[in-house]
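Internal ticket - ligand job 326, uridine 5'-triphosphate:
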Amino acid sequence: MKAIIPVAGVGTRLRPHTFSHPKVLLNVAGKPIIGHIMDKLIDAGIDEAIVIVGYLGNMVEEWLRKNYSIRFTFVNQSERLGLAHALWMCKPHVKKDEPLFIILGDTIFDVDLQAVLKSPVSSLGVHEVKDPRRFGVAVTENGKILKLVEKPDEPVSNLAIVGLYFLLHSEGLFSSIDHIIENEMKTKGEYQLTDALQLMIEQGEIFTTFAVEGWYDCGKPETLLSTNKTLLLENQPGTKQYPGCIINDPVFIAKNASVENAIIGPNATIGEHAVVSDAIIRDSIIGNDARVSHIMIDHSIVGNNASISGNPHEINIGDYSEIRVR
Ligand code: UTP
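stdout (structure tokens):
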């Protein structure tokens, strides 16, 4: 089956890291966000992917082609007009009425995908949240979706739609998107997938939900770091010992990173060829080729090739950087 992965977004909430790297290539627990997603898709039998690229799309294409051998089609969304518009661009590459699995490129998940892909009806991934006001939610009755509500003011449902969509009939999706684009039906300035799905429901398509217990958002610095922690805890990679260092698992240290006289972890990812010396690093992600020395780092993200040493009294930081001295 084919998966569609939209990754055209700019990732503004993850600046400054997304100035030079697309969000989906940011490292979390030892591999890029999209690497975690691809591994799960391939495990579940997905053998073809349409990837909707835009901002820094060449980097995404190059990384995926280098690391995976399934069949890829890259579709360029040059104008970022919303998720429904992004999917609409895939229409020429999808066979009439074939089923589709759509997954947002910044959503790492843990779910029995094989079971989802066998569903006899269309089905949306949901996660129970305490405060649904930030999400699109599904209002259900006896397991069937009655309607979808974007960011509800009233507590109509706490089943948030979290970025995984199994659609049995691609034709219905594309004709709904045609309709919202032809009639310029934008919500918050964008052509929304939720609006297209709501139209499908109104036209009689049956939708159920599937529970996504493991749902790891990577869209903001704090969620990227909490996802890093959760994934490290789940996949404890059995860290080797480094002379003169204390390693507090869970951590991921790239094989070719150099770590000397340091305390690493818990919940730290150290990227490829990074050099860490005389430092304490916990709850943080250190990028590839970064250099960190004579400093304690906590709840931090250090970009690729960045360098930080000593107490941060004298610093040279880019636009949108964030420093918290505690
Ligand atoms: P987000 O709303 O999280 O956008 O889109 P973003 O650009 O990645 O991040 P921010 O909001 O600027 O920080 C969710 C997913 O949908 C894709 C994004 O790439 C992301 O994977 N998307 C969204 C598109 O591919 N095209 C669109 O027009 C909108």
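Auto-summary: Residues 6-13, 23, 52, 77, 80-83, 85-86, 104-106, 219 surround uridine 5'-triphosphate (CB under 6 Å). The first helix runs from residue 17 to 20.
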